[in-house]
Amino acid sequence: MLITDAALVDGRVRDVRVEGERISAVERGLTPDSDERVIPADGRLLFPGAIDVHVHFREPGFPHKETWETGSRSAAAGGVTTVVDQPNTDPATTTGAGFDAKATLAEASLVDYGINGGVTPDWEPDVLFDRPIFALGEVFLADSTGEMGIDAELFAEAVDRARDAGATVTVHAENADLFDEAAIESLEDDSDADSPPSSPTGRSAPADAWSAYRTAEAEIDAIERAVAVANDADAPVHVAHTSTPEGVDAAVDAGATCEVTPHHLFLSREDLPRLGTFGRMNPPLRSEDRRAALFERVADGTVDVIATDHAPHTVEEKEQPLLEAPSGVPGVETMLPLLLETVRQGRLEPERVRDLVAATPAKLFDLPQKGKVEPGRDADLVLVDPDRPRETQAGGLHSKAGWTPFEGLWGVFPELTMVRGTVVYTRDPETGAETFGPAVGENVRPEE
After folding, report:
1. Is 316 labelled as part of a ligand binding site?
2. Are 158 and 119 in contact (CB under 8 A)?
3. Which domains does the chain have, with CATH numbers?
4. Cα–Cα distance between 276 and 31 in angstroms, integer?
5. CA gap 4, 22 in Å, rounded
6. pLDDT given at position 139
7. Is 56 annotated as a binding residue?
8. Cα end-to-end span (Å), the chain
């Protein structure tokens, strides 16, 4: 096919030819062949497909929260063409059998994918590293959904094994010893004080206690410890969902890479009266000052990657009292639209967004065929109209969660998403009619 008059992130307007799964030409004045499908871009932005290196698609084990089909549809509708799934499913992706079960389910994906191997006391490193895992992680240094937290000794062993296998370690860095138990003791003693909200916009005053409980110091300390272990072992480490500017600085100063999530970038503790228990996540939302400082580090190039930590739970699950509600929010469909809205507002440059969600993830995680609109690369392409933003509404999204913490925020959503030359999503900007393509997703770490 031929996409004509497309605006690229660097401001050039070019025609882009796709042959098979790859981009074959990016030039001016390309003439359509007789059998080519022509897609007139008419000056709209043609963006490389986003690579979300941190999702939880919940299968196997929790298909009522999300499936590979629903999660990948949500990804495609948000311009994400590659996802990396984390290991805290049931069974966990810590054994050969766990990996194989997930790999079979992932064949339902509309987008390309990687599958991370996890670490628990009973993990099977030899078998896992014989499988086509994407990376080792999310390695949990404190319990989160799935209760896969490990101790320092096992973490050091995992780093050594990953180094020998040539795999990056992705770490969930929180030190549970520095959690503030006093922040939630009153909730444990007084159930009446913790009445759940009736909807994602309901009110739950104690929700802020979760941010007070899982302290910023717990994250900063764990990042410093984890990166020190990795540096001693001469092993690459990537810090997941860094929620504080101090955590970003600690990672970068020590030579590690890090990611920031959209919820830590666009939401803060000031949003908790609106979100209630729907705003519980790990690590938690931080102060508005820290959120603003985090955005500055994204804008100035300090942060390497933005990834969603897409962690869907149902409305019914999130409506429980704070100490019973699960941690996590959906976000794979809203990451790129929210970032493109910051471009429209003049807060980020389009090249910076390209680097954060496509080019840099491709470089850091050895995906040379992805991340840019260039000849020879995979035809993972997203067409958007920067002049047609729309309001984020849960009813217009596709995750099985059925809600979003970003309700009411504006975003620039895709009109077309392509995975290796196959159109997997379209939306008519006039009527809102949507179509989804076939499940063409493949593992980006193919077996040799």
Report:
1. no
2. yes
3. 49-370 (3.20.20.140)
4. 55
5. 16
6. 86
7. yes
8. 30
Q: Is 138 within any annotated ligand binding site?
A: yes
Compute CA 75 distance to the chain's CA centroid, rounded to the nearest angstrom: 10
Predicted confidence at residue 199, as pLDDT, reads 38
Closest CA to 369 of 415, 334, 421, 414: 421
Which neighbouring-strand residues pair with 52?
A: 83
Residue type, 2: L
What global pTM score does this model have?
0.95
Predicted confidence at residue 201, as pLDDT, reads 37
Pairing of the two strands 22-27 and 13-19:
antiparallel
The alpha helices in 277-418, defined as continuous H runs, are: 288-299, 315-318, 335-344, 350-354, 360-364
Reduced to 3 DSSP states, what percent helix, strand and coil does the chain have, rounded to the nearest 5?
35, 20, 45
User: How many degrees, rounded to 5, is the angle at CA 278 between CA 321 and CA 81?
Assistant: 145
What span, in angstroms and rounded, lies between the C-alpha atoms of 441 and 268? 34
Strands 381-384 and 414-419: antiparallel
pLDDT band for 189, please (50, 70, 90 cuts): low
Mean pLDDT, the chain, integer: 93
Burial (Cβ within 10 Å: 0-12, 13-18, ≥19) of residue 191: exposed
Q: How much of the chain, in percent, has pLDDT values that exceed 70?
A: 94
pLDDT interval class at 251 (50, 70, 90)? very high
Question: Which distant-in-sequence residues (6+ apart) come within 8 Å of 225 by Cβ?
Answer: 141, 152, 173, 175
DSSP 89: S
Name the DSSP letter for residue 32. P
pLDDT at 203: 36
Please list the active-site residues.
Answer: 309
Q: Which of 371, 198, 221, 358 is nearest to 275 (CA)?
A: 198
